[in-house]
């Protein structure tokens, strides 16, 4: 439930509409978490949406800060704003740049370095911190962005884990009730931003709503329905992806 909205009563009609338009398969894992109570399952779906929304906003800060920091240091030291065309990238990164340029052109815009940097996805920047670039892009450029104690492998592992969370959120997948420790993920995002800029990390921590939402208790259903369980046939949970 959004912070400014009143509680919404989950009626049988709402449950029927949810299963029609969200799909029983997508809701199945929430029903499992709710021990078969489908209305509580919808409350968990609400919770997933709330926390996904809050975390995606925090993740956005990391994505923007990381890409701009990497671009700035390479541009400054390499001497070319279009370094991505000259620095010797792997096939996957060259393809990402190509697709970014095509997307910009399809939008009827002029291809500029600023637009390319903004268009390539988060995975592009994460891969630049991977082993393939250890002796080149990392050692020559990215290394100087982070505190000396932060090793490339540890950073890459952190970024890969956060990218996985980011992708689950972006694809509307479940992040509650699984193996993820969401408060730990939140702390990791803030810490990673702080490695780049402590000031930006403090700003993000002061202006997002994740902890407030994470600390809220799951709202209660009206008493007459709270204990009622559906008699519908159980639905097998969808596989996690």
Structural features, described:
α3 (about 40-80) packs across α8, α6 (about 120-130) packs antiparallel against α8 (about 150-170) and α9 packs antiparallel against α10 (about 200-205). The model is unreliable at about 225-235 (pLDDT under 50). The protein is built from twelve helices and no strands. About 25% of the residues are buried. About 65% of the residues lie in helices and about 0% in strands. With about 240 residues, it is mostly helical. The protein has one domain. The chain has helices at about 10-20, 25-35, 40-80, 90-105, 115-120, 120-130, 135-140, 150-170, 180-195, 200-205, 210-215, 225. The two termini are about 25 Å apart.
Strand content: under 5%
Instruction: State the major sheet.
Output: none
Any idea what the radius of gyration is?
Answer: 22 Å
Give me the strand/helix succession: HHHHHHHHHHHH
In round numbers, the mean pLDDT is 90
Helix content: 55-70%
Poorly predicted runs are 225-235
Instruction: Please tell me what the overall shape is.
Output: elongated
Number of strands: 0
Write down the domain tally.
1
Distance between the termini: 25 Å
Structural class, by secondary structure, is mainly alpha
Total DSSP helices: 12
SSE map:
Layout: H1 12-21, H2 24-33, H3 38-78, H4 91-106, H5 113-119, H6 122-128, H7 134-140, H8 152-170, H9 182-196, H10 198-207, H11 210-215, H12 223-226
């Amino acid at each position: 439930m959004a912070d400014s909205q009143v509680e919404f009563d989950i009626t049988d009609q709402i449950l029927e509409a949810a299963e029609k338009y969200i799909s029983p398969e997508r809701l199945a894992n929430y029903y499992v978490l709710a021990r078969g109570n489908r209305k509580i399952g919808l409350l968990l779906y609400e919770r997933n949406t709330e926390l996904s929304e809050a975390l995606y906003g925090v993740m956005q800060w990391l994505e923007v800060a990381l890409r701009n920091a990497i671009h700035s240091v390479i541009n400054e030291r390499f001497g070319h704003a279009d370094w991505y065309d000259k620095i010797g990238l792997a096939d996957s990164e060259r393809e990402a740049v190509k697709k970014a340029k095509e997307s910009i052109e399809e939008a009827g815009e002029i291809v500029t370095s600023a637009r390319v940097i903004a268009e390539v996805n988060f995975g592009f920047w994460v891969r630049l911190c991977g082993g393939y670039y250890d002796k080149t892009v990392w050692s020559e450029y990215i290394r100087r962005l982070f505190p000396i104690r932060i090793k490339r492998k540890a950073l890459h592992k952190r970024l890969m884990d956060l990218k996985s969370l980011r992708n689950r959120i972006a694809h509307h997948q479940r992040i509650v009730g699984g193996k993820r420790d969401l408060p730990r993920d939140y702390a990791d995002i803030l810490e990673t931003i702080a490695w780049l800029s402590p000031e930006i990390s403090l700003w993000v921590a002061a202006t997002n709503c994740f902890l407030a939402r994470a600390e809220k208790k799951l709202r209660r259903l009206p008493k007459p329905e709270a204990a009622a369980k559906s008699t519908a046939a159980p639905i097998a949970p969808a596989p996690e992806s």
